[in-house]
Amino acid sequence: MNSAQSEVNTNFLQTPRKGLGSWIFSTDHKRIGILYLCSVLSFFLVGIALGLALRLELFSPGPTIVSAQTYNSLFTLHGVIMIFLFIIPGIPAILGNILLPLQLGAKDVSFPRLNLLSWWLYMTGAALALLSLFGGSGPPDTGWTFYVPFSAITTTNVSLAATAAFVLGFSSILTGLNFLTTIHRLRTPYMSWTQMPLFIWSLYATAWVQVLATPILGITLLLVVLERSLGLGLFDPGKGGDPLLFQHLFWIYSHPAVYIMILPGMGVISEIIPVFTRKHIFGYKAIVFSTLAIAFAGSLVWGHHMFASGMSDTAVFVFSLLTFIVAIPSAIKVFNWVATMYKGSVTLAPPMLFALSFIFLFSVGGLTGLVLGAPGPDIHVHDTHFVVGHFHYTMFGGTGFALFAALHFWLPKVFGRMYNHRVATGAWLILFTGFNILYGSMMIVGMQGMPRRYYDYLPEFTLGNQIATAGSWLLAVGILLMFGNLLRGCLRGEPVGDNPWGAATLEWTTSSPPPLENFIDEPEVTRGPYDFKGVNIS
Amino acid sequence: MSVDAHRDDTGARMGMWLFLFSELLLFGGLFVLYAVTLSTHGEAFAAAGRELNWVLGTINTLVLLTSSLTAAIALSAVQKGNSALALRCLWGTLALALCFLVIKYVEWSSKIHHGLYPGGAQLAERPEGQMAFFNLYYVTTGLHGLHVLIGGALLGWVVLKIRQGGVHRSNFVLLENSVLYWHLVDLIWIFIFPLYYLML
Prior knowledge:
heterodimer, A: mainly alpha, Cytochrome C Oxidase, Chain A, two-stranded antiparallel ribbon, 67% helix, 1% strand, B: mainly alpha, Four Helix Bundle (Hemerythrin (Met), subunit A), 7 helices
């Protein structure tokens, strides 16, 4: 074996070049995935810290720890960081990058240098977002939605934060474009479209939404920045503009964006459930179809964010109807996952526990979404904590738990080491309990009439808020325990074999950690992604 | 290097087309604003539109269409191995791009001279629909002008590559993608021109 060959065959964590430069300038999709892993999770911890501060402020009525202005900045930064720096890039950028070529039997993505550029753009956007915290006249206080007219007139650093979101959007578009091309062009010739793992299908649908919806956010934020800097006024009724147009344009992106967030999570669950049930996924084609249907129909429902903003009754009716239609493909997926488990041999390993709690939490989030999708009840709970609770059930209980499930499932593949299962189970239990206490109470005080984004509240909401805040502490403990266990597992855990869970997709046929070019020999597709007959744990 | 040199021209073209879709949607947001503002402020909006200089607009349309033609000829020339012709055509495209921007500059500065710009004193006295028209006009043509600059820079880089021998008859996807981008710049103008200069 000559030296060039042996370099290809060593695992990607141990290339001859060492140091930071071999990571931050690497075009290896696995290394870029790990760069995203470190950066995205770091910002997640920042977002958690801001969220804990918000909850602490709401522990009692009146001023508790911060001023009203600081509170406004806290929820704005919590939203901007969690949405643009954590949930949107979370699963696609971390696990999509690491797994997409592996599951397709490819050596890398189609455009490796563009992939590296995406990470650099992500870091640039992140730096701008953090910069907006300092200098100028204080951190932005508009909420992550940057609604005009307030965002056009507030003196805080809104322009900087909006520019940050613009740059992050560009990073997201380039990742989507790269993934789409990779799926079309670099799939191993032995794999047909219907032999692709469902995670790939979910990335495929997500990537289309990323490419087609994100530019609308870009132009909208650009117009806000121009309105602030040049007095443009396209959203200013005094200058012939219309603030409602901002809301339309903003949600034309930002509603599909929630499917950018949730679809990859659904893909993860579709991978994990069959492995720990030892059964073929129920309704492969129905899941593929529902994935594409969610991406398509989800792009036509943005108006349901504006039932209280002023729209014609016809528009309200149409947007409400379309919103209910999205529930159908979502429910198809839930039923398919549950049907997969029927008469299966279920193992409650940590990834499965997170996947099962995803189904529960996402169902709660989805069903409370129907309350909001119906215009009548929406008018009553609009802008209350009920919305905040619903949103966190879908996004955190959905995407967040799917990400945790995915990390527990695939990190042993990436690092070749296993975390402690008992600690992982304990962390899951604490996290799951804390989660429901926190966001369940939020939905209840919301139903009772507690508005969102208020720094003060009426005394009758005190108990509910205190329970929620206590839940937030439990949640934080669970998350820290989980990350600590995962980190220790990745660095110093027990070495594991190539296929510790007995899964059937291609990434498990190569070594753990995978070699630099993923597969030493050209991978052959000898079985379907969920055909477990004869697959052994190794 | 251990990694195999990977070349996939079809993939590169596909990536470019996807990027062009995202560019179309970027401008799409502005066209939505145009449609809504036209329907809410029809008369005043149209009155402002008639103040634009349609002669200069028409000349610019011809300039940009011709630049797309020379860019397309450059691609065919490279495919046939005639790099000298390709270079002459690309220089022609770049000269026409510059010409477009100069005419745009003349148009903008005559309007700005009359105080018709976002936040300008003259514009603030106009009816709302007219203010909306000029605001939208500056953003749309400004963003388009920015794309002319980007496309020009891209083609300038390809000129360099052709001279260095990096782009030739058996490896021309870089030129092809740059020309695709240039056609997009052209295509967007084909929508801007009638909507802003002719239709109102």
